[in-house]
Amino acid sequence: MWSYERRLQYPVNIKQRNPRLAQVIISQFGGPDGELAASMRYLSQRYSTKNRKVAGVLTDIGTEELAHMEMVSAIVHQLTKDLTPQEIMEGNFERYYVDHTLALWPQSAGGIPFNACFFQSKGDPITDMVENMAAEQKARTTYDNILRLVHDHDVCDPIKFLRQREINHFQRFGEALRIITEELDSKNFYAINPDFTADLCK
Amino acid sequence: MEGVVSRVDRTNREKLFACITATSFVLDDLRIYLDTHPNDQEALDYWRKVERVRNEAVEEYTKCYGPINSYDVDVKNKWTWVEEPWPWEGRC
């Protein structure tokens, strides 16, 4: 189970509202490389992962991603808090506003709703670790793209923290992949799912 | 509530909270490192050292300013968990 702590992993205190920026950053909540997809990916993959260390990495990184989702949501919330109808129109926020008012809803910057097809849970730990390493890089690129558009220090600061975590998680998943490959049968190297070793149809 | 808290007290509260944030992060980062390096003695020593500081800060904060975890709510005649600001509200 999980236990909620009444704190963010890294503080978010934004003074200046900016609905236009919120619409970009919301992609890291519900977009293709966002934190919701990240947490669901790792927390779904872990059950069939037989290597205990790797299942631990998936559990603990998946949990941290939930905290990142909360940070991104806090950023979007603070960027859109108490917007007036005029600010909504001027910030090109009206198309989001009409369906969700000022609530959080998981979607990409382009308005595409969150979809479980953003991630895989394949049941082959090599496949899954390679997917996870790619996912961390994609999220890092997205944060880079966001940082080019942000000039408010209050927003930059937590986004830079999140970007750094992607790099750290990439390293851990690289180690997880190495742990799995080290335990492989030499005849089975990269060829067959080590967690489901029933004979292949010859 | 906010008005009766003195400036000195608020500074102390912020310092304690910053300490909890920082030490928790060290442990969050160490946790995933230790998952793949379970025998790294230097990392294990660091965990023990930081965990002690974090536990003291959480205990002090909970006693003075209220719980961070709902298991630690001091239940008397009223449920106080929902009284303090939620973390996403920010300071400003």
Automatic annotation (TrEMBL), chain A:
Gene3D superfamilies: 1.20.1260.10
Cofactor: Mn(2+); Ca(2+)
Keywords: Calcium, Manganese, Metal-binding
UniProt KW Transmembrane keyword: no
Keyword Manganese carried by entry: yes
Binding residues for Mn(2+): E35, E65, H68, E136, H169
CDD domains: Mn_catalase
A Pfam family annotated for this UniProt entry: Mn_catalase
Binding site for Ca(2+): D60
Cofactor binding comment, as recorded: Binds 2 manganese ions per subunit.
Family annotation (SUPFAM superfamilies): Ferritin-like
Name of the molecule in the record: Protein CotJC
Originating species: Herbinix luporum
From TrEMBL, chain B:
InterPro entries: CotJB_dom (IPR024207)
Domain of life: Bacteria
Domain Protein CotJB: 15-89
Name assigned to this protein: Protein CotJB domain-containing protein
Organism of derivation: Herbinix luporum
